[in-house]
């Protein structure tokens, strides 16, 4: 069964540095998402992406964050000038279209030092 | 505002006992409700969606619009059911998911 894949599984970065989290959605999926889960808290929506543009973003997704689909397979989340509170598990998800459930990747654990 | 509430952080039962994981929601329209499961060291996986009204791994969930609930039930828990369970909703069009805080189910032998 095809899966959403995320790399790296764990990223350790110094505060203030930029980090790029990578995702390869399932190949025939058209909608892409990023979520995050701070340790001990709920999974929170960050952004959804369709047709090469952001379709919705949460209040968490401020100017520090950006997403990109640089080619036909990757979907990336960039965090500029990371802060300690950005430490979390980041999940990528995709679905083939509206009215279809989202499939999640294994997540990337981001640790900001 | 959209909100999903899972009042129990931990539910501990013995093998063979019935299980009910509670989920309540607040939403102004007609949401789609889901249960996702996360086994140890694995990804979030879709367990159930209310519109399909099916039973997966013996689990069922009924949407009660009057009580705004979508509780997850299983008549006889198994040890392999031990996992984190997340209730989630989305609006029509299946865009962003709003998750509850999750309930850890621990099934002991």
Descriptive tags:
heterodimer, A: 113 residues, mainly beta, 7-stranded mixed β-sheet, 4-stranded antiparallel β-sheet, 0% helix, 50% strand, globular, B: 109 residues, 6-stranded mixed β-sheet
What does it look like?
The complex is a heterodimer of chains A (113) and B (109). Chain A has strands at residues 5-7, 10-13, 19-24, 31-37, 43-50, 53-57, 65-68, 75-79, 88-95, 103-104, 108-112. Chain A has 113 residues and is mostly beta strands. In chain A, the strands form two sheets. In chain A, strands 2, 4, 5, 6, 9, 10 and 11 form a seven-stranded mixed sheet that branches. In chain A, strands 1-3-8-7 form a four-stranded antiparallel sheet, with no helix packed on it. Helices cover 0% and strands 43% of the residues of chain B. In chain B, the strands form three sheets. In chain B, strands 2, 5, 6, 9, 10 and 11 form a six-stranded mixed sheet that branches. In chain B, strand 5 (32-38) and strand 6 (45-49) form a beta hairpin. The radius of gyration of chain B is 13 Å and the shape is globular.
